[in-house]
Every structure is written in structure tokens, then in C-alpha cells.
Amino acid sequence: MGSTAAASVLPVSAGTGQNLVLILDYGSQYTHLITRRVRQLGVLSLCVSGTAPLASLEGLRPRAVILSGGPHSVHAPGAPAFPEGFLDFAAAAGAHVLGVCYGMQLLVQSLGGAVVPGERQEYGKMDVQVTAASSALYGEAETGKRQTVWMSHGDEVVTLPQGFEVVARSVQGAVAAIEYREKRFYGLQYHPEVATVMCAYLLV
Fold first, then answer.
1. What is the pLDDT of residues 64-86, one digit of tens each?
2. Active site residue 122
């Protein structure tokens, strides 16, 4: 068993101090923890509705955007989504985008990947294992290392959008973490904010 630990949250270049982390809230019971963990690292965070019109974000230039989890399925009629033009907004700001749980599935589906009802529905504490020799989320030479995280999902990612790679899987084989470094897109199927500490070096 791996030790209970927070997963990586943002790449090293995401910045510190007064650089803004924008959190789009999709209804997760843990969203307030994301906000708290970011602020505990000395980084300014702003939480808004995940479906807020893009015009309401005008003037913001976040260094990073976190798409929260939520109780929804991306396949449900009327499932919440980020506003039209959001990815262009993030790119123009040079922001890193991290999808957490539902947020990861939303990012994957929006970019042309596939999310399906999971054969391996995962809830509660579970080990994940790093599968990439090098990644922005886990660093270098971490292949095979495990950590215990908090899962809460029924759907799962089965096909990645072009350019993405899987960098961690659950012990049941489900995709647990993905990234597309060149585009600054990242996804975690689990909730790093539930752990006691987030890895501060990712915001240095």
C-alpha cells in the first residue's frame, strides 16, 4: 500500500504569490477544499460557477484553472460544461488547466476523447500507480510508485484526446491521471484536495 498523500496539483511553472488560480465549480462537495488547499500554499484563488458565462471572466488572467469534480455524468442531459470559448480563454492567458474527477472527464470529452460508464466504479481510498517515467504531475523517475488517494467516480476515461498520455492508473487499471504538457492540460480522476497536504513544490 502506498502512503496517503496528495497528488500533484499544478505544474512547476504555475507560479506563486499573487498569481491567480481560478476554480470552476461543478458541484463537488470538495470544491471548498480545493480553494482552501490553494490558499494554504499562499496562492490567490477565486471560485466561480463552472457554467459562468465567459464574459464574467473578462479581465482575469489566471496562471492556472482547476475544473472541480461534481455529482454529474458527462452523458446526462443538461450536464454542466465550461462556457463556449473557455479553452481559448485559458490558452490566451497561458494558463495550466487541471480537471479533477468530473472536471477531467469534461476536459477529455470536450477535446474528442471518450468517457463511458465505468466497469470499475471506484469509491473511497484506493492506490494509484505512476506509469510514466517522466511527467509534469509526478516528476522524474517515479514509475511504479504508489500513493493512496480518494476516488469517487462512476464514469471512466477510455480513449484519450490526441496529444494526451496516461501517467497513472488505479490498481484496478482505470485511468487515474493524464496530461498534455505542450498544451498545459492535466487531469486527475481522484480528489487530491481530500488529502491533508498538497504538494507545494508544484506551485513554486
1. 999 999 989 999 999 999 999 99
2. no
- Residue 110, in any domain of the structure: yes
Strands 165-170 and 114-130: antiparallel
What is the rounded radius of gyration, in angstroms, for the C-alpha atoms of the chain?
15
Active site residue 191: yes
Considering the candidates 72, 142, 193, 199, report the single residue annotated as catalytic. Answer: 193
pTM given for the model: 0.85
Identified catalytic residue from 72, 101, 122, 156: 101
Tally of domains within the chain: 1
Owning domain of residue 198: 12-203
Count of CB atoms within 10 A of residue 182's CB? 7
